[in-house]
Amino acid sequence: MPGESLLEIEGITKSFGGQTVLKGVSLSIKKAEFLTFLGPSGCGKTTTLRIIAGFEDPDSGRVLLEGKDVTDLPPYRRDVHTVFQHYALFPHYNVFDNIAFGLRIRKVAEPEVTKRVNEAMSLVKLQGFERRRTSQLSGGQMQRIALARALVGRPSVLLLDEPLGALDLKLRKEMQLELKSIQRKLGITFIYVTHDQEEAMTMSDRIAVFNQGNIEQLGEPREIYERPKTSFVADFIGAANVLSARVIDNKKGEVKLRLEDEVEVTLPRSMELALGAGQLLKVAIRPERIEVRYQDTPANTDNVWLKATMIDNVYLGNSSQIFLLPFQKPPGRVLMAVSMDAEHRERRTAGGTVWAEIRPCDILLLEPSPNGSNG
Amino acid sequence: MLAPATIWLLAFLLLPVASLLAMSLAKRGPYSSVIWTFTWENFARALDHKYLTVLIRTMCYASATTGICLVLGFPFAYFLSFYAGHRRETFLILLMIPFWTSCLVSIYSWIIILGRAGLLNNFLLNLGVISTPLGILNTPFSVILGLVYFYLPFMILPLYSSLEKIPRSYIEASYDLGAGTIQTFSKVTLPLALPGVFAGCILTFVPCIGDFLTAEFLGGPKTYLIGNLVQNQFLMAQDWPFGAALTTILLVSLISGVYFYQKLEAAELERA
Amino acid sequence: MAKPVTRREFLKLAVVGAASPWLLACAAKEKEREVNFFNWSKYIGKDTLSGFTKDSGIKVNYEEFADEAEMFAKLRSGARGYDLIIGTDYMIPSLKGLNVIDPYPTGVLTKTGNIDKQFLNTPYDPDNAFTIPYLWGTTGIGYNKKMMPKPPTSWWDLWDEKYSGKISILDNARDCISTGLLLKGLPETTTDEKDFAAVRDLLVKQRPLVKQYSSTQYMDSLVAGELFMAMAWSGDVLQSARENPHLDYVIPKEGSYMWVDNLCLVRGSQHREDTLRLVDYLLEGPVAADIANTVRYATPNAEAKKTLDKDLLKDPRVFPPPKMAKLLKFHSLLEPDIQQLWTDTWEDVKVAG
């Protein structure tokens, strides 16, 4: 039954040798969900995964699996299997015996073992590799065997620790789609750790963005991208122009902000946030949501128009990257715009005056980061 | 142009072995001189059953020592590799200390400890465990004790290095797939440490076969080993050709033993 | 053709040039007066060597061996640098046969007159050419009086099962087989394999009682009380009796062998002249007496007896009185071919299952 909560983590903290790695992580994971822990290295995502697997004990907090407290259970008593970053295939067993390992530990009858190993091998499209030594496999093949080995025991949760990190880009893309389709087919909960935001966006039902031992935002990929809560999330998922903004006025249905203490803009809505005049906050604007205009001809009067100097226009083949400076005071924050409009290819002259057109709804108001370090 | 490695090999391996072989084919002359001939006599004599007894006895002592070293060494190496943490360097250095003392000094220390009026007997007497001193010296027990003492580090070090080389993720993977500590040890850790077990056994067994000091000082007539026999040929009996033949036989059998084991292992790999 | 020659000449010069400091050093060393003396361990007086150096200005490099076989192996494998060694009587033929030792030049030594006539014209050196007797002793039984209230009197005590595991036997074919032949009433010079088989059986019978076969470290065990009895050399026991007053020595009633350790000149010695001076010095009465006093072996030096400790001189264990001396004999000279039988017999005893 998708949607029902399967795994709960409550207030997990962990430190290693005085270094706090997790500062109280709580999370609820649904059945058959593909959840990704996304974040830079050292953010605590892998430690959280290892606590779920049972390889590490949390300093405080609980892990509940199907409502049962498993915090103190060793890894071999948890209905959770892991796909390791470097596969961790047993070198002294061949492919078949590697996959059969968990089943044989559980004393599954040998005909059944054969049947299920074969199923798992066909699931990962590696039939015929049974008798191979693991040293004769390519990275992609080892990855598939590791996956088959973890899946053959039909765990309720599969943990994947940057499993595609060692593969080249093309193979990685291929495996991402395949992993997703296997997960859909089996209906097993996947918890996937990665630092690659694109990978997270491709596969996940939900993404938990980790930063400095906390979950900074938890949500669906679209939500994370379009409504990032903090500047860290905005910056880490995709590119973002993060600007400082001061509230000038917050009348009903309209909020007036001064960006970078210089340019005033008026946004037609402000329901979500209770903003008082004078308050300082951060806003984010996605580069692809900035339209670069060469003439001051506002087509839609509701949009924000910023007069700016074009600093550079970089041609990237499928798109152009345009750098603008709408502010006069030094140092002046540069805005980046990305557009696929063919018009920009010809107008690659720096130094000219242009206008940036931004829809008010694309100016994203951000909360301060829980860590206080919101860059 | 000879590469340095070739020169090294020639000087330290081939030349000594070649002269050993030449000596083993020579004949003992009057006043224990060496007559350079070509004869298999020494080898024929070495196969006499009275020497075979010594050889078999030596094999038994070496096997027992190797077995005891393995039983004692494995837990230690395991502890060192998995639980010692940052203290592991300290333990390794402690393990090396016996190497830095002269083995004669160690042997005499054991004589002092094991003697009738030695530390061990005094201790047991004071505890009241025994009423008369035990005759421990010059028994098979004291020889095996001495051998184990000398060769335990030879067992522990290769074991440790092979355990150390096992990626911890293999062990985690085993736990993760439901294997408990005992199953993980028997199905993952031990098989992966086997090269170390084998290396440790070779490194213990081979020098045990050649050891003569331990048997000479801590042993008695019942512990006369092949090393003593060889030593006697070079010293007391002054029959160098026969001593060389015995050494050659030992050398060849040990080398072929190791060689066949490796063949076997390679064949096993092939089959799998 | 001219070019290679000059090059070769140049090389020659370079080698000589490079080696010249070394050559000079060698030359200098040649002039340095020294003797390299290889002796049994604990077999010299405390001030013997320093006294010699003070007298003569000749330095003595002194090295000790605990095992005669070791010394012999070292010499025969061509160890260089020894000038003077100690050889036991029965080894002299081997040392001669292997060309390891040189005869003494005639008329150089001045103190040979001090040697007791008994030790001249011996079977092992009938012309007194190769040997100068240094010390002599007997083979017998050392024992611990505390452990053995009734002292051993016979070789057969070493076959007594009462003392199983408390006995040590010399690890030496010559001593053991000679004793075996003596006990069997057979001549030492026998070449009959049956005789050797009989001796072997006798010694194999003793084997289960033996704690260790040893010629070197059995003394430590005797001192420490590990052993009750040990087949031993006289002076070793008497020396050790200083450490453990319970130790005593007896020449068994069946008789035994006496042996003589001799000073021999090593062939190829670079310091012959200085070596001879040392030998002469060792022959001086007071020097020989001092050595004997220290090591508790008998001296073959008649002159020394004048200054010898009175208790040593009167000790029947060191200088057996005539009645006992009749029971003692020198080891016979063996034919080289028979030696293999000796070592084989002894080896059979050692390896017997």
Distance between the termini of chain C: 73 Å
Q: How many β-strand runs of chain C? A: 11
> For the record, what CATH class of the largest domain in chain C applies?
Alpha Beta
CATH H-level superfamily of the largest domain in chain A: P-loop containing nucleotide triphosphate hydrolases
The strand count of chain A comes to 20
Q: How many DSSP H or I helices of chain A? A: 9
Give a brief description.
The complex is a heterotrimer of chains A (375), B (272) and C (353). By secondary structure, chain A is of the alpha+beta class.
Give your account of this protein's structure.
- The complex is a heterotrimer of chains A (375), B (272) and C (353).
- With 375 residues, chain A is α+β, with helices and mostly antiparallel strands.
- Chain A is built from 9 helices and 20 strands.
- Chain B has 272 residues and is mainly alpha-helical.
- Chain B contains 12 helices and 2 strands, in the order αββααααααααααα.
- Chain B has helices at residues 4-24, 41-46, 49-82, 88-100, 103-114, 119-127, 140-165, 168-176, 181-210, 213-218, 226-234, 240-271, and strands at residues 27-28, 34-35.
- The radius of gyration of chain B is 23 Å and the shape is globular.
- Classes of the chains: A alpha+beta (375), B mainly alpha (272), C alpha/beta (353).
- At the B-C interface, helix 3 and helix 11 of B face helix 3, helix 4, strand 7, helix 7 and helix 13 of C.
Could you list some keywords that capture this structure?
heterotrimer; A: 375 residues; alpha+beta; Rossmann fold; OB fold (Dihydrolipoamide Acetyltransferase, E2P); 2 domains; six-stranded mixed beta sheet; five-stranded antiparallel beta sheet; 34% strand; C: 353 residues; alpha/beta; D-Maltodextrin-Binding Protein, domain 2; eleven-stranded mixed beta sheet; 18% strand; globular; disordered N terminus
Describe how the helices and strands are arranged.
The complex is a heterotrimer of chains A (375), B (272) and C (353).
Chain A: E1 5-16, E2 19-30, E3 34-38, H1 45-53, E4 60-65, E5 68-69, E6 80-83, H2 95-105, H3 110-123, H4 139-151, E7 157-161, H5 169-186, E8 189-194, H6 197-203, E9 206-211, E10 214-219, H7 221-226, H8 231-236, E11 241-251, E12 254-259, E13 263-267, E14 280-285, E15 290-293, E16 304-315, E17 320-325, E18 335-339, H9 343-346, E19 353-358, E20 364-366
Parallel strand pairs in A: 3-8, 3-9, 6-7, 7-8
Antiparallel strand pairs in A: 1-2, 1-4, 4-5, 9-10, 11-12, 11-14, 12-13, 14-20, 15-19, 16-17, 16-19, 17-18
Helix pairs in contact in A: 2-3, 2-4, 3-4
Chain B: H1 4-24, E1 27-28, E2 34-35, H2 41-46, H3 49-82, H4 88-100, H5 103-114, H6 119-127, H7 140-165, H8 168-176, H9 181-210, H10 213-218, H11 226-234, H12 240-271
Antiparallel strand pairs in B: 1-2
Chain C: H1 2-31, E1 34-40, H2 48-56, E2 59-65, H3 68-76, E3 84-88, H4 92-97, E4 101-102, E5 132-144, E6 167-169, H5 173-183, H6 193-206, E7 210-213, H7 218-224, E8 229-233, H8 234-240, E9 247-250, E10 256-266, H9 272-283, H10 285-295, H11 310-314, H12 322-325, E11 328-330, H13 339-351
Parallel strand pairs in C: 1-2, 1-3, 6-7, 6-8, 10-11
Antiparallel strand pairs in C: 3-10, 4-10, 5-8, 5-9, 5-10
